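Issue 218. Parser rejects a valid record. Input:
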Amino acid sequence: MAQAVDRTLDILEALAQAHDDVSLSRLGARVGLPLGTLHRLLATLIRRGYAAQNPETQCYGPGPKLLEVASWAARSERFNLRRIARPYLQQLTLATRETSNLAIAQDGDTVYVDQVASPRLVRMFTEIGQRAPVYCTGTGKAILSGCSAAELEGYLATARFERWTPNTITDPQDLRAEIDRARLCGFAVDNEEREAGVRCVAAPIFNGTGACIAAISISGPTTRLDLADLADLGHLVRHAAERCSADLGHGVMVTRAIAQ
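Output the parser choked on:
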């Protein structure tokens, strides 16, 4: 029974990954099944709507039921961003004793949607729902680092840059260079750019389609978040963001394709 389930799922994944309909022999070579076994399993998938066959070419492709099931799954609370990110926020705060945040981008701002506060007496606190400019926050720059080149250029061409502190980046070219660095290392840094005396390290979160939808961060006073320690914190935050992304389905199909 388990083998039949594995084989059926292999077929579904192969059909879903194919750019167009595939022949029985090509599909058999892809999943490594005898043609008789493959034909029998395909008949069941077609009957249930998970696969379809072109009557003219006799080739096979994904059926409409796959889209229906995917739509159901996408609405499940299992893929709720805050629900997924919450344990990672807790782990980050436990490991660093600093405040961790979850933020999304909206209309040129970052909006904080969840937080786990530091247990220390002196700590950073950002009210849930509070907005801040994308260009001068760690979460905002992390989200920009996860955007496409065209999206980044569109933002740089239309954004209005206000200087909040002496460290605020207000030149589009300088911000582009900052985002390039964030892409290379996997995390972004806010070094007293939004508020003097505060540093933040953030990393982007991606969903199952590869879109950057949020960022996770650690923030704290400069007296505790030393510049020399930001790289270690950055790797910690990036790892948490990568795990959030994986839980949202990011990289699953890419990894499967590479493995085959």
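Fixed in the parser; the record now loads. The domain at 78-247 is CATH 3.30.450.40 (Beta-Lactamase).
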